[in-house]
């Protein structure tokens, strides 16, 4: 799919992976709606790239639907949806004071998995109404979700986070098969450790410890490198139904 002239929604677009992706899509001629929390820098990013900003809490599922509808209306359609919002907790299956809290487990699932699936299903519905962007391929849209290499090598204390990210990776092929007849692709990106959020700006000596198991390069990834892969996914119609690792050959150790 050619990016120029397309309509894109980036959830979590105020920072990190989302911001870099929103900027990359806009640079290539897409109209971009940035969705993020009210206290984020979403409006600043949207103003910078000539897009629109829409406040959202992705754990408010009904509210998310209303916000996405508003964003798509403002764009005049939807061809590209990228979800990067999420988070994690540190909690073992059994702790000194008892078993893992079901409440905190559910919160991780709601934020990372249900929030992602909710946006994916709603975005796919909007995309299904598009005329094909390419008469030969009959493509109508592409959905890119964000997993993690923790989906494959979850570390100690990450059981809730790992479960949610593994589910995002696991639903790629099924979703792609569900949407194939509509000309909509579905994929996920599974990053390793990147300079986003809590890891942004940490000293090099600490970063080198965190990435010592990487093959090459032995450093934190850059949000722009995530955005480059997202752009490549959009532009290459043969990429579909899979979760792509973006990890410099790193495999997480148990802790």
From TrEMBL:
Source superkingdom: Bacteria
UniProt key word DNA-binding: no
GO molecular function: oxidoreductase activity
SUPFAM superfamilies on file: NAD(P)-binding Rossmann-fold domains
Keywords assigned by UniProt, alphabetized: Oxidoreductase
Family as reported in the entry's similarity comment: Belongs to the short-chain dehydrogenases/reductases (SDR) family.
PROSITE patterns: ADH_SHORT
Pfam families: adh_short
Name assigned to this protein: Short-chain dehydrogenase/reductase SDR
């Amino acid at each position: 799919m050619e990016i120029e002239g397309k309509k894109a929604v980036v959830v979590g677009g105020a920072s990190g992976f989302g911001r870099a992706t929103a900027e990359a899509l806009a640079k290539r001629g897409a109209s971009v709606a940035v969705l993020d929390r009210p206290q984020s820098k979403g409006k600043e990013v949207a103003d910078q790239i000539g897009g629109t900003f829409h406040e959202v809490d992705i754990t408010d599922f009904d509210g998310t639907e209303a916000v996405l509808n508003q964003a798509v209306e403002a764009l005049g359609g939807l061809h590209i949806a990228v979800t990067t919002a999420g988070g994690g907790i540190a909690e073992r299956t059994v702790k000194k004071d008892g078993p893992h809290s079901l409440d905190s487990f559910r919160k991780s699932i709601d934020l990372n998995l249900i929030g992602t699936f909710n946006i994916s299903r709603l975005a796919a519905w909007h995309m299904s109404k598009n005329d094909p962007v390419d008469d030969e391929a009959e493509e109508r849209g592409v959905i890119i979700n964000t997993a993690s290499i923790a989906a494959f090598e979850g570390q100690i204390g990450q059981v809730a986070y790992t479960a949610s990210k593994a589910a995002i990776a696991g639903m790629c092929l099924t979703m792609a098969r569900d949407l194939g007849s509509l000309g909509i692709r579905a994929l996920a990106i599974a990053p390793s450790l990147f300079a986003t959020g809590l890891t942004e700006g940490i000293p090099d000596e600490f970063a080198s410890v965190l990435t010592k198991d990487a093959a090459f390069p032995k450093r934190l990834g850059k949000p722009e490198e995530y955005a480059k892969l997202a752009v490549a996914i959009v532009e290459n119609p043969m990429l579909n139904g899979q979760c792509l690792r973006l990890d410099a050959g790193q495999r997480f150790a148990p802790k």
